[in-house]
């Protein structure tokens, strides 16, 4: 975080939804004791509803779950809204999932999540190549939601950030590009500059008791152990 990232993106994997197994609420709770960073938790798990309470108790600030994993995604959103800790609600799409899967997250004319994460690699593994063929999803989402956070995760680096930003992404999750660099602060700064030049700027608003800056973000990605 000292290198200038706006948030810490933490991947939680259960060994079922994706093959890998990573840390869970106990480790995040320990991290919370040592950091006041925004913990943007990405749940790559088969039962996201079961993680809502434990993640709130652990100190998560963002709770992003996969629409493919939820029997009723609206139930997950409702549970996050009712959790003991305010959390930003995000919903993620795998590369093989169409944008239309998000239709299940509308209620009474309103889209329930705060953020949509478009995976630009198959979830579960780091160091994969950016999938530019996912940009039509980002473009479609930006047309439909002009003032919503649209996040991209997978293969983001100095060569691909412009493609994502031009499509409409304003939240960039970078892993290998940051952690494998000898100058991570410079990489984060360059990623942010790339997004700020091209992405949509939006006014600040209050969300669930938490203030979100609504500005283009560069997030550092915490690799699984």
Q: Give the overall shape, derived from the CA principal axes.
A: globular
| CATH topology category name | TIM Barrel
CATH level 4 superfamily: Aldolase class I
Task: Bin the strand percentage.
Answer: 15-25%
Measured between the Cα atoms of the first and last residue, the distance is 18 Å
Radius of gyration: 16 Å
Oligomer: single chain
3D structure, described in words:
The protein is of the alpha/beta class and 225 residues long. It has a single domain, classed as TIM Barrel (Alpha-Beta Barrel). It contains 7 helices and 12 strands. α1 (25-34) runs parallel beside α2 (52-58) and α5 (161-167) packs parallel to α7 (184-198). Mean pLDDT is 87; it is low at 201-225. It catalyses: D-ribulose 5-phosphate = D-xylulose 5-phosphate. Catalyzes the reversible epimerization of D-ribulose 5-phosphate to D-xylulose 5-phosphate. One of its GO terms (molecular function) is D-ribulose-phosphate 3-epimerase activity. This is ribulose-phosphate 3-epimerase.
Q: What topology does this entry show?
A:
Elements: E1 7-13, H1 25-34, E2 39-44, H2 52-58, E3 62-66, H3 73-81, E4 88-93, E5 106-107, E6 110-111, E7 115-119, H4 135-144, E8 149-153, H5 161-167, E9 171-174, H6 176-179, H7 184-198, E10 205-207, E11 210-212, E12 217-222
Helix pairs in contact: 1-2, 5-7
């Amino acid at each position: 975080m000292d290198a200038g990232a706006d948030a810490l993106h933490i991947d939680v994997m259960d060994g079922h939804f994706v093959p890998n197994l990573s840390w869970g609420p106990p480790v995040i709770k320990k991290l919370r004791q040592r950091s006041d960073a925004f913990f943007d938790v990405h749940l790559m798990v088969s039962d996201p509803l079961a993680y809502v309470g434990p993640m709130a108790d652990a100190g998560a600030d963002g709770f992003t779950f996969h629409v493919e994993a939820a029997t009723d995604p609206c139930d997950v959103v409702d549970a996050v809204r009712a959790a003991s800790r305010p959390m930003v609600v995000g919903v993620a799409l795998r590369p093989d999932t169409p944008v239309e899967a998000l239709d299940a997250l509308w209620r009474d004319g309103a889209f329930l999540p705060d953020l949509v994460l478009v995976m630009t690699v198959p979830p579960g593994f780091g160091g994969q190549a950016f999938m530019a063929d996912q940009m039509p999803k980002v473009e479609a989402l930006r047309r439909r939601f002009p003032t919503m956070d649209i996040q991209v995760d997978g293969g983001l680096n100095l060569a691909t950030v412009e493609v994502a930003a031009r499509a409409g992404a304003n939240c960039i999750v970078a892993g290998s590009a940051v952690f494998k660099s000898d100058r991570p602060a410079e990489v984060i700064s360059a990623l942010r500059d790339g997004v700020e030049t091209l992405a949509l700027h939006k006014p600040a608003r209050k969300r669930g008791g938490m203030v979100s800056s609504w500005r283009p973000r560069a997030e550092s990605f915490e690799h699984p152990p």
